[in-house]
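Exercise 7b. Backbone tokens:
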């Protein structure tokens, strides 16, 4: 009754206040928010959060070029391509944080009352509600009390003693602070959410391509921090130079086995750091991490190798190395050719559209070639597509095939800055502690009444209670009773 009165006194009274308090202390709200967060996290896994081109390729393949572009615009507008930094996702986390915090505030006083309340000798009212109890008949002696205390102590308890009405009470408890395990876990979740929101407010993710020998001092943002006004690029207060890029292949295949970048950090005109990075082994400087994520041939500096064969003359074969937008004379003819568009790796979508897959040549290349005569007059323009060799110029009597694509490589780096990462790790550490306390410790109490009887006999009334894991405690209680029976 005392606890109920205290609980009622601590809860806010009044219509609207009571309604708001009841809303935030509802377990249904917790479950609903967790379901919503789980669903949107699945969507965030399907929709790429770092590479807009992957989303465009996926949507073009599903809906076609025009509708795919419209769907992508809708996803960008609603924040689905930058979900974990969107205002509505942070709002969901904030609402769940408020729900957990208020539930904790609502329930914690009752638990703390149990923890802080000193254990008392066993009363008849308490005895009625205890399920584990045993009565033991033994011989009365001057040492019986000490023997009982020794048996209780051997079980890991610190026994206390009291005498009331000629009856000796030995009682003890342990693990009372285990009741705080769930609140440590609640706190850890709030700390993790806080770290995630710090990252959303001030952190960012970006991408940068660096050609060997070049230095960059800004990165293109893939998502923008909510509380920092920045443009499409995030300037760094230092430079990152790519000294060397190494690409390793499996034998003679086009499949990469490994790729590495040797990076140098230049700060205030001085080289302060150098590291060779690979996938999952980033460079970190001033809490900014540079991950090896991709590579490719720098498009503006690439050269394509075209194999040209005269119609009807398979013996007439010549290879030309051509750079984009640079005219090249077809020997033995009056024609000049210019590569106006080039995609080293393309696939054909379900609606017959061409989709660029990567900047790496894998044989399935495509190029748009413009032909002019020696006076510079336009003759025709055609698309050469390796996957469909029948697609050739009509007016120029030659067949074309793309057999190579080379140039200086760039290293593609994913850049992350998350000032909340250590807050998240702190929350994870607290969560591990909270789970260990909540699941592997529990509050146990034991009582022993020693009452002298007639003819040198004594009656021991042994009782025990636990707040959880009753099955394990039953074994402990049985061992204690057996020790007392042996006295």
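Sequence design result:
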């Amino acid at each position: 009754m005392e606890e109920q009165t205290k609980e009622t006194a601590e809860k806010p009274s009044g219509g609207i206040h009571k309604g708001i308090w009841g809303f935030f202390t509802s377990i249904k709200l917790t479950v609903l928010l967790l379901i919503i967060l789980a669903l949107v996290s699945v969507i965030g896994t399907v929709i790429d959060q770092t590479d807009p081109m992957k989303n465009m390729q996926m949507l073009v393949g599903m809906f076609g070029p025009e509708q795919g572009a419209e769907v992508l615009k809708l996803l960008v507008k609603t924040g689905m391509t930058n979900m974990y930094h969107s205002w509505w996702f942070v709002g969901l986390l904030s609402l769940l944080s408020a729900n957990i915090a208020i539930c904790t505030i609502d329930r914690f006083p009752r638990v703390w009352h149990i923890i802080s309340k000193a254990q008392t000798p066993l009363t008849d009212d308490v005895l009625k509600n205890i399920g584990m109890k045993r009565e033991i008949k033994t011989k009365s002696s001057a040492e019986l009390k000490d023997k009982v205390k020794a048996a209780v102590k051997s079980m890991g308890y610190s026994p206390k003693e009291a005498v009331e009405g000629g009856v000796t009470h030995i009682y003890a408890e342990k693990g009372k602070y285990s009741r705080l395990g769930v609140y440590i876990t609640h706190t850890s979740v709030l700390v993790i959410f806080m770290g995630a929101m710090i990252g959303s407010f001030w952190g960012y993710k970006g991408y940068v391509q660096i050609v060997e020998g070049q230095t960059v001092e800004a990165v293109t943002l893939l998502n923008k921090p909510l509380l920092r006004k920045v443009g499409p690029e995030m300037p760094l207060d230092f430079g990152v130079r790519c000294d060397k890029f190494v690409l390793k292949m499996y034998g003679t295949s086009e499949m990469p086995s490994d790729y590495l970048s040797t990076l140098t950090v230049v700060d205030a005109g001085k080289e302060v750091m150098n590291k060779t990075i690979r996938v999952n082994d980033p460079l970190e400087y001033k809490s900014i991490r540079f991950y090896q994520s991709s590579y490719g041939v720098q498009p503006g500096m690439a050269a394509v190798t075209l194999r040209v064969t005269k119609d009807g003359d398979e013996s007439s074969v010549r290879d030309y190395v051509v750079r984009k937008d640079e005219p090249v004379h077809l020997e033995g003819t009056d024609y000049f050719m210019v590569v106006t568009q080039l995609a080293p790796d393309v696939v054909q979508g379900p609606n017959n559209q061409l989709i660029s897959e990567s900047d790496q040549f894998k044989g399935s290349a495509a190029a748009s070639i413009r032909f002019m005569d020696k006076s510079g007059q336009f003759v025709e323009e055609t698309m050469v597509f390796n996957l469909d060799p029948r697609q050739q110029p009509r007016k120029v009597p030659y067949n074309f095939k793309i057999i190579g694509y080379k140039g200086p490589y760039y290293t593609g780096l994913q850049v992350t800055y998350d000032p909340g990462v250590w807050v998240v790790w702190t929350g994870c550490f607290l969560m591990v502690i909270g789970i260990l306390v909540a699941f592997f410790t529990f509050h146990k109490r034991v009582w022993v009444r020693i009452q002298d009887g007639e003819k040198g006999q004594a009656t021991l009334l042994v009782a025990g209670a636990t707040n959880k894991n009753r099955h394990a405690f039953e074994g402990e209680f049985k061992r204690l009773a057996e020790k007392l029976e042996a006295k």
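Instructor comment: The radius of gyration is 37 Å. The chain has four domains: 2-114, 119-175+442-485, 204-296+410-417, 301-407.
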